[in-house]
Amino acid sequence: MSLEKIELFFLDNLVWVIFTIFFLVFGFLKPDAFLSLSNFRFIIYSSAALGFLVLAEGVCLITGNFDLSIGQMAGFLAMFNAMIITEWAPWIPWYLAVIIIIALGALLGAVNGFFIGKVGLNPFLVTLSTYMIFKGATLTTSSSPISGGFPELYLAIGGEGIGGIPYAIFVLLGGLLILGFILRYTRFGSHLYAVGSNPDSASMTGIRVDNMLLYTYMLSGILVSIAAILFSGFVGSATPGLANNTLFTAFAGAVIGGISLSGGRGRLSGAVGGILLVGTIDAGLTMMYVPPQQTTIYTGILVLAAIIINRLKETAKDKILMAGS
Amino acid sequence: MSKEPILELRDVHKWFGNIHAVEGVDLSVDSDEVVGLVGDNGAGKSTLIKMISGVLSPTEGEILFEGEKVNISSVDRARNLGIETVHQTQAVAEDRSVADNIFLGRELVNSYGPVNVLDRKEMRKISKRLTKELGLDIPSPDHEVRFCSGGERQGVAIARAMYFKAKLVILDEPTTALSVKGRDQVLNLVDHMKDEGISIIFITHNIHNVYPIADRFVVMLHGEVVKEVAKDDTTLDEIEGLLAHKDEVVSG
């Protein structure tokens, strides 16, 4: 392995290096609480729901678009589905409840995708509108939390585990494997990157860009629906503010993980690093007894730092690859 | 030389509202022939080739491909016939690898029941062979296209046409945006395609770009073909003259 290859490997996995640094720093400051298996498990567990939002944002970013509505969509899906299974149709078994919420997620994603892909409207404006619509719709569905009457197994997905390992971790791993396969080994995945890299070229090679965007937002909606299930289980109920403030954390996770805001670039392994880094920072700050309002400040600073590091990384990487050509 | 025309246009017109962009063009391209389609900007070259590549439909007239009347209603239809277009802008996804780009939109897959899995290994292998055959200095099929020069990018687009067994390749100003080195590279690629038995329409506004490699020239002015001549029967000066004195030609 040449020096350049080692450098490239290091740069490609920079998010993991940053993750390790943060983990060690927190571990040094709070060795007993932080450097334990149970803490590590907790970080992954508490990151799982947010992780699906990172992935939902990530697939939109890869196409060169984005989605401001994912957090509110998760909140709405959790509440609306909770109403269905506790009030309107309490006879519904847990697995049907899961299928319904996933179908609803795909449908809401399709609404975004239709206006962005088929009508050609700006993603910022479309998802800002749906952000507001989902937010209002959540409160219209119910302004108070729904905590009783769920099928037991529905909440267990995000709330319980087996052999000390939360189910949510398996769900996250499964989701990552499937999405990773789609991105790397299917035509859909390849076209997703091509559309993000250069939509005109993609179109000239016969790729239907409008359809691709529609499907991408549907996929994003499905990932959001899984996040909604995990959030509900994590909290043990559905609350109107379930996924408030998750949008920008999800954005941050995706960008820190190296998914480009301009589209066409970004790897799932990086996104996983981004998910865990955000989770680690969150858990670390909590253990340091940093008040929640200040947590946001630190997270903001870290995100900014991460974006700058990412840009430096890209420049360094391009230099090596250029020299190699 | 075989003289069976692969492509034939008969009295093709294109109107955009009141504008008569292409005014009754007859054109034929023989197999293994390189035709230089020359004309100034606005002469109707682009409109004409868009009708051959399936982007536009003629308002009037007939297009024959391999002797049969065809209706080239879409880019996909053109491709199925064996007509590939290489655009000036190269139609590449810069962040994707050379191999990904060669197979973009037509990826090779292995099917496992309903699941189609990309055959990345095969696509890499073929890409490696194609770029080598075309004499492109690309270090690896995994090389991202944004690190390729302009000439190499045209090479990627041409490799695409070669792999998918194009019979007729339309090159739209392939050298205009390139350096001298890039231009020479593309001219080599055109020679290579010709050796493979592919017919070529090379479109340019600058006769110098195509003079060295074309067998025949078609000069367009104001939507009409004003001169069609084999290279042996003309000189660079004559064609340059036609292009430079276009106003006289039209009024005369």
Describe it.
The complex is a heterodimer of chains A (325) and B (252). Chain A has 325 residues and is an all-alpha fold. Chain A is built from 15 helices and two strands. In chain A, strands 1-2 form a two-stranded antiparallel ribbon. In chain A, helix 1 runs antiparallel to helix 15 (292-324) and helix 5 packs across helix 12 (209-235). Chain B is α/β, with parallel strands linked by helices and 252 residues long. Chain B contains nine helices and twelve strands. Chain B has helices spanning 45-52, 75-81, 98-102, 120-133, 150-163, 180-195, 207-210, 236-244, 246-251; strands spanning 5-16, 19-30, 34-39, 60-65, 68-69, 83-86, 109-112, 115-118, 168-172, 199-204, 216-221, 224-230. In chain B, the strands form three sheets. Chain B has a six-stranded mixed sheet with strand order 6-9-10-3-11-12, sandwiched between helices. A four-stranded antiparallel sheet of chain B has the order 2-1-4-5, with helices on one face. In chain B, strands 7-8 form a two-stranded antiparallel sheet. The longest helix of chain B has 16 residues, at 180-195. Chain A binds chain B through residues 184-187, 189-191, 193-194, 196-198, 200-202, 204-207, 264-265, 318, 321-322, 324-325, and chain B through 75-76, 79, 87, 89-96, 100, 104-107, 109, 116-118, 120, 139, 143-144, 147-148, 160.
Descriptive terms for the model:
heterodimer; A: 325 residues; mainly alpha; two-stranded antiparallel ribbon; 2 strands; globular; B: 252 residues; alpha/beta; six-stranded mixed sheet; four-stranded antiparallel sheet; 12 strands
Briefly, what is this?
The complex is a heterodimer of chains A (325) and B (252). Chain A is mostly helical and 325 residues long.
